[in-house]
Structure formats: C-alpha cells, structure tokens
Amino acid sequence: MPNNLAVRIEDLSIKYKINVDTKRTMKNALMRASKGEQVRTRTVEAIKHLTMDLPHGSVLGIVGANGAGKSTLMRSIAGILPPTEGRITVNGKISTLLALGVGFNPALSGRDNIILGGLAAGMNRDEIEGKTDEIAQFADLPDGFIDMPVRTYSSGMYGRVAFSVAVSMKPDILLLDEALSAGDASFKEKSFNKMRELCAEARTIVIVSHALATINDLCDRAIWMNKGSLVQDGKPEAVVEEYLKFLKVGTLPSNYEDM
Amino acid sequence: MSNTSANLENSVNLQVFEPHKASLPPLIPYFKEFWKRRAFAIELSRFADKAEYLDSKLGKVWLVMNPLLLATIYFLLVTVLRGGMKSNEGITTLAHILIGLFTFYFAQSCISSGATSITAGGRLILNQAFPRALLPFSSTISAFYQFLPTLPVYIFVVVIGKWIFPATQIPGFTWNYLWIPFIIACVGITGFGLSLLFATLNVYFRDTTKLLSYAMRIWLYASPVLWLPDMLHGWHRAILFINPLGPVLSSTSNVWIKGISPTSGELIGCIAWAIGSLLIGGFFFISRERDFAVRI
C-alpha cells in the first residue's frame, strides 16, 4: 500500500446472517433439531463491493439513510467486523467513537471511567493518568465532577467525556459515528477546532453524521452510501446536495449505475 | 503536514483485515496485543469489583461469609446423613468441605462470570477492536481476587480447630503447603479455559449461563467436596479424573487435610486438565471471536 494512504479498501463486502426465528437458545435449537427443522436465517448484505482509498490528512464524511452500511463500514475499518470478501488495509493507530459512552460504568467516577476507556483503547496507564485532568478540562466538566460517579452526569457531559477520551489518544485515524451530536454549540465549536487541529497534523478523520451541515463544515471529501453500495464520492457540498435531493424525491442519481 | 506524514511512515502500524472462516487468526500478533493490553483486563476487574461493592459496606465480607455459611450447612447435612461423627473426624470433615468449597467456588466464579463477559461487554465489543479473550481473563482475575481473602479465613478455622481438637488429622504447617500456589494456578487456568468455552457458547445460545448454573450444582455434588476422594476405590477413581476439577480438588484435600503432596496421578491430572481446557477453550473462543461483533 502506498505510504500516503491511511486506509485502503479493496472490493469490500460484508454480509451477516440474521437468525429470523425466535430467540437463540439451546432449548430452541434442541426443539428444532428434534422436529428436523432448519434454522431460518436471512442474509443481509451490509456492504457491497466497496473500493476506496483514503489518504493521510483527509476528513471523510459518510452520509446515507438508515441501513446504508455506514456503521458497518466504520466497524470494519476499525477491525471490529471482519470482511466477508475483499480486504481493508489500515496504516496507523485507530481511535474509535462508535457508540457513546462505551465501556463507561455509571457507578464509577469520571476519572475511573476515563482510565478504563483509555486502557480499552490501547493506551498505557501512565499515559492515560497523565491526561485525565486535560480530558476533564477539554470536556468542560464542572469543578469536582471528574471524581463524581458518571451516573450523576448529564448526557451532554457523558458524550463530551467520551469524545475527549477518543481525541486524547492522538490517533492517526479517528472514526466518529454520530459522536458530534453530544455537546452544545460551544462544545461543538471546540470539537470542530480539535478535529481541524488533528487534521493539520496529517491525521485522518472519518465522520458518520446525519447533520449534513457538519459534513459540509468539516470534511474535504464525502461519500454517500445507499443499501451497502457507494452512490457518490466527491466534494462534500456536491454529495450532500445530491443526497438531499434523494431524500426529497427518493430517486438515486442517474449516474448511480456507473458507480 | 509533510513532517507528520514522515513520522507516520517511520512508525508504520499496518493492519490488514481479510475474510476469515472459523479458523485462528495469526496467533503471535494476537498474544502480543493480549499481553500489551493486560493492564486493561486487570483494571476492568478492579473497577468492576469497585463498582459492585461501592454501595455495600458488607459487600466483600459476603465473599467469605457465603461459602462459610454454605460449608456449615453442608457440614450439618453430611453429619446428619452419616448419623453423627466424632469431634476429631468432624473438624476434618468441616475443613475438607470448607477448602473444597472455597476452591470449587473459585473455579465456578471464573467460569460463570467469564461465560457472561462477552454478552455483557456488548457495547465495548462493538466499539473497540481488542483481543476478546481479555474479557473472560478479566473475570478470572476478579475470581482470583475474590478467592484470596477466603484463604486466611480457612487457615484461621484450621488453626483454631487444631488447637481445640489436637488429635485431629489436620496437619500443622508442612512443606507440602508449597504445592498450594501450583494447585491454585491449575484451578485458575482450568477455570479460564472453560470460561472461554462457555463464553463462546453463550454468544450462540443465550441460555447457556442458565443451564450452567444447574450444571455447576451437579458438578459440585460430583466433585470431591462433600465427600472425600479416598471414598472412591478401584475403577471408581476414574470419576475423579474425568472431572476437570477432580484432580485439583483431590490434591487440595491431600495437601490441606492430610499434609501430604499430591500423587503423581493427581499432578498429571491437574496439568492435563489445565492445558486441555486452555487449548480447547482458547481454540473455540479465538477462532470465533471475530464473529462476536455480528452476533451480539
């Protein structure tokens, strides 16, 4: 893979098998086996033959309706979901923020949760302990809240801490899935600035968001996905415009077949 | 920007994700990553423990009280069933049941909390890529830390017992106590191996943990906890060895109650079950763990 690339996706397809039947229990499996019945499954093609290169320092926005495969794509880049076909090559340290407050234990203090979140993300203890105050400050936690149980936090505070932990890792590649909706306007501005800073350091950011203005504001490239396929890849304004048309009219652009 | 690009080139951290069937990922990078993130497993267990007992002052005491009270109940039950026993024999039986229960509970706690670690860690699994075996490993560490405080309690009971009934079979200090760390390690490794197996099963069949709670109870009765390993003779002794915890429990009884070293058969049994459980559980778990994010 060329050194200037952060992520290379080659002919990626991801399929899941969903169990359509009742709950997956041993009891049901035995009952079914005794009746000679087969498990009814449905295959969902979450991503279909996607090929894409992402150079270092780019900010990619992904738009698409629910079920387009955006989150699946993010998880596959992070190495969480294995490809069914194709290959993903990633060059650099990844930090993910794919679901808010992951790994957070509400009974523990913010400080404990930050340490746990950092360790889960692959930082070492000294590294993360040295950063807890910085994280708390960046997350705009009111005085003393860092040592209070997370259950006392507002949902905004919760989201801000999660975002701060993810960016504090100084990742080469930052994956954010609907993570920017957490804060208020001032935190949003702060997080945008932080991301621009990361970007200036040649770090790569991939953002999934339904807030199309965010995509236009932050990204230098956008892709639109629909039912697992890439519909459009280009400048954010152009992609967002086409996507908005699709949302209003419900038809895909005429050049879709060519993609 | 070009400077940083150069830095990135220097610290190339290339990862390739490709399709897989139910086969093992490259093991050396897997174990390297596991080792690198061991602090996460340790802290996860410490924090889970902290969160669990945060609001209850008696919390940790229950860890000791629960097996202690159960041991008393089982002891009374065994005494009634046998139609009473002499006080010397009584204290030996109580000591045997107590250490057997503590040891069995250590294994049980590894297995049952490890079995739910993957399904309970759903959000973590969906957000971060890390060797999933760290989650059951963290449960094993928790189980170990919960087991440790029971040992001083046991030693206290035995010392008091010996003091009140000097004629009892329980030995004073013997060098054979040096076998104890080895036995505890075997219990931990066997428990961890089996927890990997049941954690995987629980992802596919969500009632595994329910069945496990019944299975563990039957397993307890089939293990030399409420009865002495010496009660089995001839081919019946095979019962000890087909039980993954049989050799460790019978070694425990030998060292703590008789003050002798485990027999060579027991030692081989301990090692074989520890390695066997780890290999089978590890293979089953690691070969399927990339599937977990889809199944959860």
Question: Please, could you describe this protein's structure?
Answer:
- The complex is a heterodimer of chains A (259) and B (296).
- Chain A is α/β, with parallel strands linked by helices and 259 residues long.
- Chain A has 2 domains: 5-32 and 41-93 and 171-258, P-loop containing nucleotide triphosphate hydrolases (Rossmann fold, 3-Layer(aba) Sandwich); 103-162, no CATH class.
- Chain A contains 9 helices and 9 strands.
- Chain A has helices spanning 26-35, 70-77, 110-120, 125-129, 132-138, 155-168, 185-200, 212-218, 236-249, and strands at 5-19, 41-55, 59-63, 85-91, 94-97, 173-177, 204-208, 221-226, 229-234.
- In chain A, the strands form 2 sheets. Chain A has a 6-stranded mixed β-sheet, sandwiched between helices. Chain A has a 3-stranded antiparallel β-sheet with strand order 2-1-4, covered by helices on one side.
- Chain A is globular.
- The two termini of chain A are 23 Å apart.
- With 296 residues, chain B is an all-alpha fold.
- Chain B has one domain.
- Helices cover 73% and strands 1% of the residues of chain B.
- In chain B, helix 5 (87-120) runs antiparallel to helix 7 (134-147), helix 5 (87-120) packs antiparallel against helix 12 and helix 9 packs parallel to helix 13.
- Chain B is elongated.
- At the A-B interface, helix 1, strand 4, strand 5 and helix 3 of A face helix 1, strand 1, helix 3 and helix 6 of B.
List keywords for this structure.
heterodimer; A: 259 residues; alpha/beta; Rossmann fold; 2 domains; 9 helices; 9 strands; globular; B: 296 residues; mainly alpha; 14 helices; elongated
